[in-house]
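Lab notebook, bench 4. Still working through the backlog of constructs that have no structural model yet. Next entry is a single chain of 245 residues. Request: give me the structure tokens for it.
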Amino acid sequence: MRSTAYKVKIEDLVNGRYVSSAEGEPNYLVTPWNQQVLRVNLIATIIDKFIREDGTYATLQIDDGTATIRAKAWEEGAERMGEFNVGDLVKVIGKVREYEGEIHLVPEVIRKIEDPNWEIVRELEILDNRKEFLAQGVTPKLSSKTGEKETEKMKGEEVAPTTLEVEQVGTIEKIEGEPRPEISDDLKDKALLALEKLEGEDGTTPPDLAAELDISASKAEDVIATLINDDKIYEPNPGKFKLLR
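Model written out:
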């Protein structure tokens, strides 16, 4: 079974402790919040890009405002990285690795994010997670001044949202408009089976999925958007989707 891709900050990784497990067991990283992570789910901005002349190796350096980290890829993965540019906001799902003292990522999925408000959503998700850790008595050691201030702010028994947080939530609601339609677990399961059945070398299109499930095209797009957000599928080619295995 694929391990959970934890939603974390880059500072959690660069300030973490990498553990090389016994033979046959996967390596992992212990974050300052005492999470054992093998895979992560980050939202960050590309600040630097390198591609080897022969195209067989590439790196993207990404920054989420707390720290930076490099994502490294080889062969076909390196070719895929060439599609992204400095300044792009991206969602990266991948494995945490360490080489010669440097923590880096080996990406499984990289997807460009068009709506910057997803950064705000992620900030609030991580803030909620950290409040839960503090409630459980976990006290992290964060080296960044931002992290220390955030920890102190959350230590009180009741944590009132700051003015900035209220403004951010309002911005999300204003820009996104109506909430995304809820997709039942049954429909998601049927969609995953249909995608597996229809999946070719390049992936499945929304119209193909709609025809297979006998649903409207707009409903198929909602299902696909939900499965992408759940990290169940990805978009290897524009308009075509495949299972994330």
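Notes after review: The two ends are 9 Å apart (CA to CA). Residues 117-135 form the longest helix (19 residues). Flag for follow-up if needed.
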